[in-house]
Design a protein that fits this description.
Length: 352
């Protein structure tokens, strides 16, 4: 009687921003039976499912692999991608998406925070938070710190392939800026999911640019805002990076995030990017990164002190820069990629 549950395991399925529990799953079952169990709780057909972190000998486990051979620990979280049949049908029915602006954000008012109150918290993060340096910082470079969810990746929509949820021009954007900017990613999630997402998006080992490091939610701190209710919010204080890497400062650092309060302690350094949602509708027309590349490259080539800029007006800035074309001479590659992507978009159809 004591051995009844030795072959049972509890699993968690992460899909479309939600978690689904699979309790007492028999490890003598195959991956196909696992997918059928997942269908029962999510509605996604087995043939639509991609179990992103279920690997066998370094490769995605096929349907015949027995679960016990995967050495999954109890409580293991499986990251799944896949579309419901009704979602696929909706993709083939074009509609104008709603422009959601402030989801997950505080009201778009002038929020402030007294940084001096949180000096000890920041000093503790600098002293205790461990950063794994993937590639060493380079001399005399600006720094760009990017968020992931809704900034470069629509993490709540469903798709057959991760690339379908990637913001357009991501690789062109990073490739264009890399000669001038060191690159870091900072996401309000665990390091496990940061690494998984960037790997799926093809960022981790891209041949045309390198990432200095990643920061996760453990590097953030909680602060009380100046809003009427004094909401307690988690923020990404760039002082943690500046304390770890003294070559970076407010003069040469910009943070891209779709949630403004994430850079509440460094408002001068924050650039709020429009959230990338409903990827199936917007991936063919979203050009945010294309135009931001022009703005940020122009800044770097002109050696502009970032403390002198108001990033809220970045679009107006590039539209009024009379020497933009002259300074950005050599932008042909990105422009060519725009044409290529547009052509590919016109020739792309949703998978059945």
């Amino acid at each position: 009687m004591e051995d009844v549950n030795l072959n049972k395991i509890n699993l968690v399925i992460k899909w479309s921003g939600k978690e689904f529990k699979l309790n007492d799953f028999d490890t003598n079952n195959t991956v196909l039976l696992l997918k059928q169990a997942i269908q029962n709780v999510t509605g996604v057909l087995p043939e639509r499912q991609k179990l992103l972190n279920v690997k066998f000998r370094g490769k995605p486990a096929d349907d015949t692999v027995v679960i016990s051979t995967l050495n999954l620990k109890d409580g293991f979280k499986i990251m799944m991608m896949g579309s419901l049949e009704e979602s696929i049908a909706q993709i083939n029915t074009p509609q104008e998406p709603n422009d959601v602006v402030n989801d997950l954000d505080l009201p778009d008012e002038e929020l402030t925070v007294d940084n001096s109150i949180y000096i000890s918290k920041i000093e503790k993060r600098i002293a205790t938070y461990k950063i794994d340096i993937l590639n060493p910082p380079r001399d005399n470079k600006y720094l760009i710190v990017l968020d992931i969810d809704y900034t470069i990746f629509d993490h709540r929509s469903t798709a057959e392939q991760p690339v379908e949820l990637m913001r357009p021009y991501l690789h062109e954007f990073l490739t264009t800026l890399y000669p001038y900017y060191d690159i870091m990613f900072w996401s309000a999630t665990s390091m496990k999911w940061i690494l998984e997402k960037l790997k799926l998006l093809g960022v981790t080992n891209h041949p045309d640019y390198k990432i200095v490091c990643h920061l996760d939610s453990a590097a953030m701190i909680s602060v009380s805002s100046s809003s009427p209710k004094h909401e307690l919010v988690d923020v990404k204080p760039l002082q943690v990076i500046w304390g770890k890497f003294p070559q970076y400062s407010p003069t040469n650092t910009v943070m891209l995030d779709d949630i403004r309060h994430n850079f509440l302690m460094n408002k001068q350094s924050g650039l709020r990017i429009r959230a990338f949602r409903q990827a199936h509708f917007n991936r063919y027309k979203d050009k945010e990164l294309f135009f931001l590349a022009k703005y940020l490259k122009y800044i770097a080539k002109k050696h502009i002190d970032l403390t002198t800029l108001n990033h809220r007006k970045w679009e107006s800035f590039i539209s009024h820069a009379k020497d933009l074309d002259q300074i950005l001479y050599g932008e042909e590659d990105l422009t060519a990629n725009t044409t290529s992507q547009n052509e590919n978009s016109n020739n792309t159809t949703a998978e059945d």
